[in-house]
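Sample entry was shown:
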Amino acid sequence: MNIFVGSLPFSIEEADLRESFEAYGAVDSVKIITDKFTGRSKGFGFVEMPNDAEAQKAIDELNGATVQGRAIVVNKSEPKPEGERRSFNNNRGGDSRGGYGNNRGGDNRGGGDRGRY
């Protein structure tokens, strides 16, 4: 089972998170999500546990638990349907935002073709 863990303290390490979940059973993997530019934790991560019963027990007991002074959120991670994923390069929708994109009325910059030849 893939488990989402949120509201993590920014200082927590993957080894610490693994240790918390290993108290309930085997852990396949632990991944704390970090900002790709700063390397700083984004405050959430994922834990993969092979046994669903152990994973559910971990979710039930760790959800709302205090870790380094913060109440963490723990629940089963559900994959997003393919259509809901954000696209960072194709989500403009046609540049119809008044004054931007193709609605500028041309790029003459003072004088059309004068001085170009």
Remarks:
- The beta strands are 2-6, 29-34, 41-48, 66-67, 70-71, 73-76.
- The mean pLDDT is 84.
- The first strand starts at residue 2 and ends at 6.
- The two ends are 68 Å apart (CA to CA).
